[in-house]
Amino acid sequence: MSVLPLVFTSGWASGVNAYAVVLLLGVFGVTGLSDDIPQTLQRPEVLITAGVLFLIEAVADKIPYLDSAWDSVHTVVRPLAGAWVGALLAGQSGSLSDVAAGLLGGSTALASHAVKTGTRMAVNTSPEPFSNVVLSLAEDLGVGGIVTFAMFHPLPAAIIAAALLATGLLLLVFLVARIRRYLRRRAQRREERRLAHRTDQADQVGRAGRPPD
């Protein structure tokens, strides 16, 4: 069977939580539950690194505003992870070009990352932190469930991932106003910090030039 559905699903999941994808696939390979997992993903150092970063993300992803900062940093990381995993899966299978799989995994990861990032920006316009925790848990469980399902039923899992991606992209259209509000607030906070920094510098210069009593 072509590895295309698994590449697509892993790409979608990487855009949501790349470390969980690497960790899950590696565990499936190490435990012998799947013979389709590349040896690279099963290496101890890869599993340990992915596990540590997954735990860090599990915390950062549930804290308002920190989650959006974390997403900004991972705008490059998640698509690259999706491309890397896709290319590895294609190389293991031999049924799909490494380059094509990398492009598919990376582009799908970028699209799902955009959905995740935009949704978090919209959620961060509300003052309570519970939405972030609930959304983060749902994302973690969704990634874990769909990646696990994809190992045994790749085509149905890919269909579910495609439906979730399409729904998420459509949802972003309705969240544009909230996302703009979040961006305005962030720009305002940056300007306030910049003005406060200038005020502090001016005060320090004034105290330095003041003659002693």
The biggest sheet amounts to: none
Give the amount of beta strand, in percent: under 5%
Give average pLDDT, whole number.
89
Counting H and I runs of at least 4 residues, what is the number of helices? 8
The topology string of helices and strands comes to: HHHHHHHH
What does this structure look like?
There is one protein chain. With 213 residues, this protein is mostly helical. Helices cover 85% and strands 0% of the residues. The chain has eight helices and no strands. Helix 1 (4-30) crosses helix 5 and helix 1 (4-30) crosses helix 6. The chain is elongated.
Layout: helices, strands, pairs:
Elements: H1 4-30, H2 39-42, H3 44-60, H4 66-93, H5 98-123, H6 130-152, H7 154-174, H8 176-209
List keywords for this structure.
mainly alpha, single chain, elongated, 213 residues
Could you provide a short overview of the structure?
The chain has 213 residues and is an all-alpha fold.
